[in-house]
Design goal:
This protein is mostly beta strands. It has a single domain, classed as Calycin beta-barrel core domain (Lipocalin), CATH 2.40.128.20. The protein is built from one helix and ten strands, in the order αββββββββββ. A hairpin with a 2-residue loop joins strand 8 (about 120-135) and strand 9 (about 135-145). It is globular, with a radius of gyration of 15 Å.
């Protein structure tokens, strides 16, 4: 496991903007255990926003026949050494935005968790992004219902 990293806010924001640009990739979505995953092509764009205080992420694509369009605002709270991501999309968050937080860790761009509700029951949701090199962005989402399991996975390449 990678260790949490304490850092200056400007260093953290520079790290978060490392994936600025346009990306394309094929996403895998796991809906339920025992059912085959769905796949689809996605595009993602990320750009600095609010005069460098945040990163605005927009994406769109399909999981099988279902369209997903979403956006996230990613920032860093230097006073509390936390990354924050507010996320909403047409497929995963139909009841409204989810707010996720987490510490920046070595080896990841960001790794944040939040709580979501399904049929009135809370469960955890985790989003992690890694850049193994300057032209590859691994974007992963996990559901945490007891044990953590994959929800979506996409390896994007710079477009």
């Amino acid at each position: 496991m990678t260790e949490a990293t304490t850092m200056d806010k400007q260093v953290a924001l520079a790290r978060l903007t490392a994936f600025a640009g346009r990306w394309t990739g094929r996403t895998t979505l796991w809906m339920e255990p025992g059912t085959p995953p769905q796949e689809g092509d996605f595009t993602l764009t990320a750009e600095p926003a609010a005069e460098g205080e945040a990163v605005l992420v927009r994406y769109e694509g399909k999981h099988g026949d279902e369209t997903a369009v979403g956006l996230a605002i990613l920032g860093f709270d230097g006073d509390h050494d936390k990354a924050h991501l507010t996320w909403v999309d047409s497929f995963h968050t139909p009841k409204g935005p989810m707010v996720l937080t987490g510490a920046l860790r070595d080896g990841v761009v960001f790794d944040v968790t939040g709580t979501w509700y399904w049929e009135g029951k809370p469960f955890g949701w985790r989003i992690e992004a890694r850049m193994p090199d300057a032209d590859t962005l691994d974007w992963r989402m996990f559901v945490q219902m007891g044990e953590e399991s994959p929800a979506t996975a996409c390896t994007f390449k710079r477009a």
